[in-house]
Amino acid sequence: MCQPVFTCATLDETEKLYEHISKGYDKRLLPIVNQSEVIVVTVQVSVVSINKFDEISGDLGVTVLFHMTWRDERLT
């Protein structure tokens, strides 16, 4: 039987790791090594609530959650 081992980083260790990973990172550059390649971006839009619906004027007011994800090769 295998017992999983869990380790939890301290806040200080987490901050050091983040600083190490993001050192020299320039957010203005595309998140791929070969800048001529395409980036696959996944977009998810979820309707959270309908705030206004007026059949006569055709007005519709909604609150949405907009979520985008992509893989940043420079961080992996």
TrEMBL record:
Domain Neurotransmitter-gated ion-channel ligand-binding: 15-75
GO MF annotation terms: extracellular ligand-gated monoatomic ion channel activity
Pfam families: Neur_chan_LBD (PF02931)
Regions annotated as coiled coil: none
One GO CC term, this protein: membrane
Protein name per Swiss-Prot or TrEMBL: Neurotransmitter-gated ion-channel ligand-binding domain-containing protein
